[in-house]
Amino acid sequence: MLKKNCKVLLNIFQWDKDKLLEKFFESESPEKFFNNNKIRLSTSESTDIISKIGECYICFDSKLIVGLQCGHLYCRECWGSYLSTRFREENEAFPVCIDLECKMVADDLSILKLLSSESEKTFYKKFVFKTAVNSNPNLKWCPGNDCERIAKCLSSGCQAIQCKCGTLFCFVCNQEAHEPVPCSIIKRWMKKCEGDSLTMKWISSSTKDCPKCGIPIEKNGGCNRMVCKNNSCNFQFCWSCLKDWNVHGYQGANSCNRYEPNEQEKAESRRVLQRYLHYYDRFMNHKNSLKAETTYIFSWLKI
């Protein structure tokens, strides 16, 4: 397996090498494995692109045309427009060939040679790096202010991590370290506390959490088929019932019933709100006291 292809495959399998190897050895042959995943990889170690003078079949200009090892050649301007759309709008770090019938996946070094704009090259390098970090479950960005360090989990089940910048955070949810409180409870609490009431009301009425990773998603179209844009998730589900779309499908679109809360549940919601405000006041009091104590300690140390 070529080194450049390994990077592409690891990205497709979200850097889960065990899952990648499992799927690879389950297949009857390497060809079957690639076909099942609808990908075609270069068999040449070289990242050199093919080029010649000819007609671009997109803009129909006669000029220098370039392409991958598959031999589909187009001008740099058309390649640049296509690739920029794929990684800027579609969030694809390794797009397939520009030819509609070709499934060859372009590696990052080849893409940099196909791009002519230096600004696009710079953007793409940063994008590939961020994609690799975001899709790797063993890597996390430090949430500290102005810190661009990356934390790596060296053991299974790690939770509290301290960065070299001093930030102590939870590796699982990227919030402040909160052991022994579970991440699910912290998430619910932070959702209640963040932002003003109008913002929270809009989020509650206009978004739903992805059933798989929990990231809020806004519905901006008419179709109930939703796709999570989190690079490490990409889960597809029904907006109405939140069921897996692979099980739900378009056939089950009419079976999603609308839910109407009754008066008893509304009264319960008011009771829950009062309970929340009771604990929120005390939470903010302790938080402000901690800030004041920290400021006092540092001022004392300076003396």
From TrEMBL:
The UniProt record lists the keyword Metal-binding: yes
Pfam families in UniProt: IBR (PF01485), IBR_2 (PF22605), UBA_ARI1 (PF21235)
GO MF, any single term: ubiquitin protein ligase activity
GO biological-process terms attached to the record: protein ubiquitination
Known pathway: Protein modification; protein ubiquitination
Enzyme Commission (EC) number: 2.3.2.31
UniProt key word Zinc-finger: yes
Superkingdom of origin: Eukaryota
RING-type domain boundaries: 52-260, 56-97
Catalytic activity line of the entry: [E2 ubiquitin-conjugating enzyme]-S-ubiquitinyl-L-cysteine + [acceptor protein]-L-lysine = [E2 ubiquitin-conjugating enzyme]-L-cysteine + [acceptor protein]-N(6)-ubiquitinyl-L-lysine
Family: Belongs to the RBR family. Ariadne subfamily.
Protein name: RBR-type E3 ubiquitin transferase
